[in-house]
Design brief:
Largest sheet: 5 strands, parallel
Strand content: 25-35%
Helix content: 40-55%
Distance between the termini: 97 Å
Strand order of the largest sheet: 2-1-3-4-5
Number of strands: 38
Number of helices: 28
Oligomer: single chain
Length: about 950
Amino acid sequence: MTSVLYVDDEPDLLALGKIFLERTGDISVTTTESAASALELLGREPFDAVISDYLMPDMDGIELLKEVRQRFADLPFILFTGRGREEVVIAAINNGADFYIQKGGDPASQFAELSHKVRQALRRRMAELRRIQSEEKFQRLFMANPGLEAITDFSTGKLVDVNEAFVQTTGYTREEAIGKSTREIDLFPDSPDLERMAQVLANGAIVRNFEFLIRTKNGDIRTLDFSGQRIRVGNNDLLFMQAVDVTDRKRAEEVLEQSENLYRTVFENTGAATIIVAPDMTILHANNGWVKLTGVPREAQENRLAWTRFIDRDDVERMKQYHVTRRSDPAGAPTVYECRLIGADKLVHSCLVYVDIIPGTKNSVASLVDITALKQAEEGLRKSEQIYRSIIGNMQDAFYRTDLQGNLTMISPSFARELGYPDESEILGKNIREQAYVNPGDRDDLLRHLERAGKVKEHRVALRRRDGSPVIVSASSHILYDEHGNPAGVEGILHDMTETVEAENALRESEAKYRELADLLPQMVFEMDTEFRVTYANRHMLGMFGASPEDLERGINAFDFIEASQHEVVRENLRRKVEGRPGGQREYIVRRMDGSIMPVLIYPAPVFRNGKLAGYRGVMIDISDMKRMENDLRESEERFRGMAERSSDLVFILGRSMSPTYVSPSARRIIGYEPEELAGKSPEFALETIFSGSGPALAQAVRATMDGKTVEGVEIRLTRKDGNAVYVDLHAVPVMHDGVLDGAQVSMRDITERKVSEDALRLANRQLNLLSGITRHDILNKVSGILGYLKLAETKSDNPVMAEFIEKIESATEAIRSQIEFTRVYEDIGAHEPQWIDLDTVMPRAAVPETIALHADVAGVRVFADPMLERVFFNLLDNSVRHGHRVTEIRVSACCSGEDLVVVWEDNGTGIAADEKERIFERGFGENTGLGLFLVREILSLTGITIAETGEPGKGARFEITVPEGGFRLAGAH
C-alpha cells in the first residue's frame, strides 16, 4: 500500500482528492490543511510521497518543498496548485519537485493524472534506492572485472575511476590516472577515432564495439574493443566505458584475414575459371571466372550442380574416369588436359584444365583456361598467313619493302611484272634508288616526306622498267619500325597510273568539247570562282551582255551585272545551294554592258573539287518575252475584273487548290463578307461557313466541275456572315490547261426572294395541314367512340349473326383509323428542312424487345436527311419484329462504297421472298396496313437517299440504305 500525505488549505478539495486517489485501492491518503502540520506528520510517520498546494497561509508549497528536501532528502514531492505562473513552475523545478500539476478541468481526469504522477514518482525513488544499493555491488564488480573499465567526467574529460584491469593493461596506477584526462596521459594515439566516439556520445547514442588503439605507459600500442554509455548520476554527467584487449586476437585475425584474402584474391582473380569439386562431382565453390565462362549465376551452381553439367558429352566419360582415378590413384590421372565446355549460351569453349586434390580432403580444385580465342587465333593466323601470301602473290598493285639503304628485301610478283622482270629474284636485293628510279633524286624527295610525316599517300614518281622505258606510279608508303621502335626501312604499294594519266588527258579533251558545246547552246552558260569572278561565259552570254572574250580575260565580277538591291539575295541562294538546301528566288534583273536591263532566270549549282567548294556554274535564261506576255495577261485580267465588279452576281475565281483567288464586291451584299475575307481561304473554310447548309447539291456540283463539266442552274443554300440563309442559283465553268483542271469560274445569282415565295407556299400548306389535323383529330375521336360502342354491343348480344356483323364493322372502322393515322404521318414528310443527323442518335434502342439484341456500329456517321429519319429505323425495327417471326439479333453498320455511303440493317429472321423485295415498299402491301416501308422509302427519297432489300430468303432480311456523296460525313474525315 502506498502512503501519501496530501496538504491543502481547502477541506473540500482534500476530501475529493482522497476519494479519487484511494479509489484504486493501492493508495492510502492522509490529509492535512497546513504545511506546519504536514511537517509534523512527516516527522512522526513514514510517507511514500507528498502532494501539496502552492498558495497556503503561513508557509506556501515552495517553502514546504524546501523543508522536505532538507529533512527528508529524496521523498517524492508533487506540487498541485491552481496558480499557473511561470516563476512558480521554475521555483518548483529548481527546488527538486518531482512533478508540477495545475488544478482545473475535469476532476476525474485531473486526479487520474495525479495518481499516475504519484506512482511514477515512487517508481523513480525505488529505482534510485536500488541504484544506491547496487553501487557497492557495482564497485566490487567494477574492480574485479577482467576487462578494462573507466568512468570519465563527460564535461571535463577527466578520469573519475578506473579498475584493476585498466591499471594492468595501460601500466598507469590508479593515482596516475584518476583526475587526469586521456589526453594528458597520452592514452589514445589516434585522436580522430576518439573525436568520432565523443561525437556519437554527445548525440546521446550508445557506443558499442568501437575498436581503438591505445598507447601504454611503456609505449606499446594495443588494440581495444570499446563500449561506452553516457549516464547521469545525480548532477554529474559521466561516461562509463568498458574495453576488452583484443590485440592478440586482432593480430591472429589479421594473419588469418591476410591468408584468406590471399586465397580469395587468388581464387577470384586468378584469371582462370576455378571451381572446388566434391567427391560426388558437385560444385562446392565457383569463382567469377567460372560464372562468366558458364553463364550460370553462382547461387544456381554451388551445392546444386555437378561439373559434368557443363562438359561436352564426348569429353564427359573421359573426365569422369580422371575424377575417380585421381582419388584412388592420384598418379594415374593427368593434372593437365584439354576439354570442351558448353556454357548457358550453348557456345563451345576449348579449355585447358589444371586439376589436383586439395591436401587433407577428397575435394579437388580445378582451373580452366579458355583457350578458344587462342585456338581460333592459331587457326586465324594460319588462314591469315595463307590470305596474306595469297594477297601478296595475286595483288595487282605492286608491294615492296626496303631496308634503310634502299635495298629491296621483299617484293610481290606484281612488282617484278610492273618493272618488266620475268622473276622476282632478278631484282630482289637490288637498290631501288639506283635500279628503278628514272631520277634518283625523286627517291630522296620521297624519303624527306617520310621523315617529316611518317607516311606518304598517292605520291607520283617516275620509275624505270628493265628495258629502260618509264612508268608513272602512285606510291603510298610508310616507315617500317623494328621491335624496339627504331626505323628499319620503308614499305609501300605502287599503283600504275597509266590509265589515270590517260583519263586526265581525256578529261582535258572533254573539257574542250564541253566548251564547244556550251558555245552552241541558245541559253547563257557561265562559270565563276568562289570570289564570283566569271571564269567562263559561252558565246551566247557574251553576245547578250555585249561583252568580248578580252573583257572576260581582263576580269569580270558577276555582281557588276546584278542590281545592287538583289546582291544579298543572290549570296543567300548560293549559300543554300552549297548547303544542299532548296534555293529561293530565281528571277533577277541584270544590266548589260551598255546599261540596258534584262529580266532573267538564273539556275546556279556549286562546283566541288576534292570535297572543297571551287566555284559555281549555271544557266541564265532571258525572260523578257515571258514578262511581256504576263503584262498582256494582267491587262486582260483587269478587264475581266472590271466586268465582274460591276456584276450583281457573286463571282468567284478558284485556283487549282479550289481556294478563291478573286471574289467580286457583290459578296458584301449577298453573303455579308468582304472580298478580302474570302480570297485565299481554304475550301474547308468555305464548307464550314458559307456552304455549311448546302447539302449534297453542292457536292454533286463540285464533283461535276472537277470532272471538267460545266454546271448550270443548281440551287444551293448559303449561310451569310450574320447567320441568315440566302439562296443562290449556281453556275460553274471549269478552267482546263492541257487537259488538267487548273481552277474554276463560279457565279451565283441571288434567288432568295423566289425561295421566300416558296416558303410562303409551304406555310400555307402547313396551315392546311393544321386544319386537316384538327379535322382528323375530331374524326379519330368519333372512330374511338364507334369502336367503344361496338365492344359494348359484343357483350350485350348473343346472336352469332349480329356478332359477325359487329366484327366486320369493327374491322372496317379499324381500317378507317389506320388510314387517318397515315395521313397524319404523311403530311409531316418534307414539312421541315433537311438537317445533319447523327445516325447513332436515331437508333430505336428503347423500343427493342428484351428477346432481341441490337448491335449498332454507326458512331461518328452523320447524314443529311429529313428530320423524320428516326421513324425510318422505328419502322425497320417494327418490320423485323412483326414479320421476322424468329428474330433474336439485329445488326446496323455503315461503310463506304465508291463515292457513296451504304447503311445496312439486317436481322436473322425468316427473310423476304424474292418476288416481294420491291412490292414491300408499295403502299397497302403487307399483313397489316402496309404503310411502314412505304413511309421509309418516301422519307429517305426527300434527300436523294435510296433503300433496297438484298437479304437471302430464309436467312434474314437485309436493307441497304444508300446515301449519295455529299450527303454524309464521317468523324475525322473532311
